[in-house]
């Protein structure tokens, strides 16, 4: 091979090696930066919006609403504007129309405590408002605020007569009651730095069903009522149990919004089913755990009524409990009227309290 061809071959080899190295460097290098679109920040004032879904009757709290930037061209006169609206006056108002999460709050959508029909607007459909008296000990020392949920306990003592000491018992007769107001206020008082003011209250207004309202009125005549504050997590746990047991039925063909509405209604429903109770024997070994045995009516016997004997009824009998006293009466004496009273009057007492009983034997 002549010298000229050798030089050309060597030059071609050098060019090929250079080209390969350049290509390798190009493919192995960092990829070209991609252009990212800058986030569009709304230009306009901040308006008051709902942080979560607010059904009808919801009492506005500080964590339920907040200010958010809103396009200037979409701002309406009915909106609450940051810097113009007084947030302190909005706390404690009630939602008149359902508001979805992220939706602006309008002036016509809230009812203030000074407005006519305020308490009626706070009540859900088919619900009633009932007020109970509380003290520092029975009202959780003032730590119950509007919007909280409580359970109601009934404490009573049943006389033991000649059967030993009286029976002392406390029952949780009602659960998941929403607090509408404490005393005559539906708002939570706060200090200038945002801290909640705890104050003793004398009355608490609760949202209940008509049936529960009747039970509360009877329970107040039986013993002492006390409130216990519920955890925020309790409702979700009990709702999941109710769904698993089939107590709450959610159809398969409902929309997501309807499903959420059904679950919210079920979670907010007061409960007056099976009660739990504790007797004195569960607290102290020197207290009894069973219902006292009641004595049958006594009548005069013998010459001049000097001796008394137990009157033993003949035939069918009914044991009637009125308050803390129990008597045994014969069905033959006005059976219809007695059983009617048993079903309508005394029977209600037995359903208010597991300790107050009414039985037919």
Query: What is the structural class?
Result: alpha+beta
- Along the chain, the helix and strand elements come as HEEHEEHEEEEHEHHEHEEEEHE
Low-confidence stretches: 297-310, 342-349, 357-361
Strand elements, count: 15
Query: Which radius of gyration do the C-alpha atoms yield?
Result: 36 Å
Largest sheet report: 6 strands, antiparallel
Helix proportion range:
25-40%
Q: Indicate the overall shape.
A: elongated
Strand content: 15-25%
Through-space gap between termini = 129 Å
Q: Return the domain count.
A: 3
Averaged pLDDT: 76
Number of helices: 8
Task: Write a structural description.
The protein has 361 residues and is α+β, with helices and mostly antiparallel strands. It has three domains: 41-122, Type Iii Antifreeze Protein Isoform Hplc 12 (Alpha-Beta Complex), CATH 3.90.1210.10; 126-290, no CATH class; 308-360, no CATH class. The chain is elongated. The strands form five sheets. Strands 5, 6, 7, 8, 9 and 10 form a six-stranded antiparallel sheet that branches. The termini are far apart. The protein has helices at 3-28, 87-90, 118-122, 210-222, 234-245, 256-268, 280-283, 335-352; strands at residues 46-50, 65-69, 94-95, 110-111, 128-133, 149-158, 167-182, 203-208, 224-229, 276-279, 298-301, 307-310, 317-322, 325-330, 359-360. The protein is 26% helix and 23% strand. Mean pLDDT is 76; it is low at 297-310, 342-349 and 357-361.
């Amino acid at each position: 091979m002549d010298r000229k061809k050798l030089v050309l071959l060597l030059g071609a080899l050098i060019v090929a090696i250079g080209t390969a190295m350049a290509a390798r460097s190009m493919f192995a290098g960092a990829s070209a930066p991609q252009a990212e679109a800058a986030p569009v920040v709304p230009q306009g004032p901040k308006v008051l919006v709902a942080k979560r879904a607010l059904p009808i009757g919801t009492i506005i709290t500080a964590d339920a609403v907040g200010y958010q930037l809103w396009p200037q061209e979409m701002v309406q006169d009915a909106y609450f504007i940051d810097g113009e609206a007084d947030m302190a006056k909005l706390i404690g108002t009630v939602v008149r129309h359902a508001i979805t999460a992220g939706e602006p709050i309008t002036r016509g959508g809230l009812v203030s405590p000074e407005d006519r029909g305020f308490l009626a607007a706070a009540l859900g459909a088919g619900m009633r408002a009932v007020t109970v008296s509380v003290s520092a000990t029975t009202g959780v020392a003032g730590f119950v605020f509007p919007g909280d949920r409580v359970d109601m306990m009934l404490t009573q003592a049943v006389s033991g007569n000649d059967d030993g000491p009286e029976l002392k018992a406390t029952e949780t007769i009602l659960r998941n009651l929403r607090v509408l107001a404490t005393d005559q206020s539906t708002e939570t008082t706060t200090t200038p730095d945002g801290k909640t003011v705890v104050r003793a209250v004398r009355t608490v207004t609760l949202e209940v069903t008509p049936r529960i309202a009747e039970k509360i009125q009877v329970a107040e005549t039986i013993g002492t009522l006390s409130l216990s504050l519920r955890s925020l997590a309790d409702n979700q746990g009990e709702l999941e149990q109710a769904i698993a047991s089939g107590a709450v039925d959610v159809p398969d063909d409902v929309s997501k919004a309807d499903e959420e509405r059904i679950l919210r209604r079920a979670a907010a429903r007061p409960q007056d089913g099976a009660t739990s109770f504790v007797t004195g024997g569960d607290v102290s070994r020197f207290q009894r755990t069973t219902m006292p045995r009641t004595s049958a009516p006594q009548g005069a016997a013998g010459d001049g009524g000097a001796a008394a004997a137990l009157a033993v009824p003949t035939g069918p009998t009914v044991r009637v409990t009125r308050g803390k006293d129990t008597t045994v009466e014969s069905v033959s004496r006005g059976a219809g009227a007695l059983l009617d009273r048993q079903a309508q009057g005394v029977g209600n007492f037995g359903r208010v309290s597991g300790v107050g009983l009414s039985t037919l034997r």
